[in-house]
Amino acid sequence: MPATTASRKVANPKRRMAFVVLAIVVALVLIVAKLVMIQGMDTAKLAEKALDSRLVDKTLPAKRGAILAADGTVLADNAKRFQLIADPVNVAAYKDEQGKVIGAWGAANKIAPILNTDPGLIYPKLKPQGETRWSPIADGLTNEVWVKIRDLKIPGITVDESSVRTYPAGEIAGNVVGFVGRDGEALTGLERQYRHLLTGKDGKQQYERGLSGDPIPLGSNSQVPPVDGTGLQLTIDTNIQMYAQNAIGEAVKKHKAEWGTVVIQEAGTGRILAAAESPTVDPNNPGKSKAEDRGSRAFTATFEPGSTAKLITTSALIDSGKATADSQYVVPDKWKAPNGEVFRDSHNHEDQNLTLAGILMDSSNTGTLIAAEGMNDQERYEWLKKFGFGTPPDLEFPGTSRGILRSPDKWDARTRNTVMFGQGVAATSLQTTQAFAIIANDGKAIPQRIVNGTVDPTGKITEIPLKDGTQVVKPQTAQTMREILEATVVDGTGGNAKVPGYRVGGKTGTAQAPADKGGGYDGYTASFIGIAPIDDPKITVSVTLQRPRKGHYGGSVAAPVFSDVTGYALKQMRVPPSGPVPELPAREWKNEDR
């Protein structure tokens, strides 16, 4: 029989209600737990995440140390430059004067004329692109340009500040100062040699920015200040340097030389007052110069010094007691060495009765070899070393050459003789200048220097102490050599080196220039090196022209440049004029003198 409705089990409404209440309670507990977790446990993380999205890291560039000339003229300094940055999201809200939103295209039309460009070229950098909030627009802007853009008050436009190297004096001492690349890396010259001193340490700033991209005044802000680099004060006199650069530039052009140098060194201190050369380089635009013209040949280029090296041979003979200025020699135009090698003078002549002084005055190759016949190979080598040939230079400079001086065991039968008149040996302009400076300094080799001191970020200069010199020849030998050098200008091959109002002395040099390829020789190296005033030395000056094609003798090509720059330098230094010329060493001797 089917069950009746009365027999079915009826559900308990209280139980159903209890289940619903329990479900509601569980949901509430879960919601509250989530709220507690969000508010109590994740608040710090969320706040930190939000802050991170607002924080900006900015490099605070350190200033590279300045490079100054001896008189304080700035040769290398720093200038502020700006990178223009856009936040496209904020730029989109840019309004014109009437309050109308003109956005990225309107901003592009305002900025483009200031940057001297087309609005269409910068618009893509200003318009919103997804969530991008950082879009570089232009780099290397000056402060004047940035101020004009800032005054437009475009939201979302900011800048990053940087520092670039500038060279206010341009080409003046450009080869010596050197330059840095666009990335700030020092490439040549003193910029590279002293890069660890000149380069500072960048700082860092972290700040909180608002929606406009500008810093929040009371927001998070921390800073590590930069440490600026230490600068240099050079020994270079800008007026003398500029005059010497112009003079050697004109000479290179006039005589169609490959290059030329002028080095002017202060007596008694070793300070280099000028290291001029042509071709030169403007560190502000080094790309305009050929790669081989961007360094300093005064420091790096070697050449055979030729007859200027006879100064060393003559000094050695006098200092060692092997001869005096008045020693007498019969000098032919050709001379055959005991080993069979034949040498000749630059021109044919009858046998001459020359003193040792006369041999130097006439720049006689044969006379030099006859006078030096009693010197063995080791002595010849040692004297060249004493005068600085083949030795590491005192000056620190990228690529500085020590020259070429092979040991005597590597000399052939000809080289043992040619080194006595400056061939078979190579030196730089700095080295040949130093050889004559030894005679100017009473026989003492005083270390050369081109950096006078350091400059701290406040501008305070700390001078580097002078170094003691090394006695190379006796003071009396140096005095005798100065007399012979003066006689060489007064009555010898150096007549074109005379300086009106001053007594000077020096020596011409004309050497064959080794070919760059294939061996042998190609052209000549013409030079003149002298001391002024010879009676009270203040400077030693060397002039060198490599492979002049229009004239090639040192006496006609280099000596006139010496006269010009030496006269200017002495007046610039306010050196008083010299007195009358005294009796000088005799050039010749008569048969009855024997």
Number of strands: 21
* Class by SSE composition: alpha+beta
Mean pLDDT over the residues? 89
Strand content: 15-25%
The gross shape turns out to be elongated
Helix amount: 25-40%
Radius of gyration: 39 Å
Specify the number of helices.
20
**Poorly predicted parts:** 1-9
The N- and C-terminal alpha carbons lie at a distance of 173 Å
Please give the largest β-sheet: 7 strands, mixed
Give a verbal description of the structure.
With 594 residues, the protein is of the alpha+beta class. It is built from 20 helices and 21 strands. Strands 2, 3, 4, 5, 8, 16 and 17 form a 7-stranded mixed sheet that branches. Helix 4 (103-115) crosses helix 5 (119-126), helix 10 (238-255) packs antiparallel against helix 20 (559-572) and helix 13 (356-362) packs across helix 18 (475-491). The termini are far apart.
Topology diagram in text:
Blueprint: H1 13-41, H2 43-54, E1 55-60, E2 67-68, E3 74-86, H3 88-91, H4 103-115, H5 119-126, E4 135-141, H6 143-150, E5 157-166, H7 174-177, H8 189-193, H9 195-198, E6 203-208, E7 221-224, E8 231-234, H10 238-255, E9 259-266, E10 272-278, H11 297-300, H12 310-319, E11 328-331, E12 334-336, E13 342-344, E14 352-355, H13 356-362, H14 365-371, H15 377-386, H16 415-418, H17 429-440, E15 444-445, E16 451-455, E17 461-463, E18 470-471, H18 475-491, E19 505-514, E20 521-532, E21 539-546, H19 554-557, H20 559-572
Parallel strand pairs: 2-8
Antiparallel strand pairs: 1-6, 2-3, 3-4, 3-5, 6-7, 8-16, 9-10, 9-21, 11-14, 12-13, 15-18, 16-17, 19-20, 20-21
Helix pairs in contact: 4-5, 10-20, 13-18
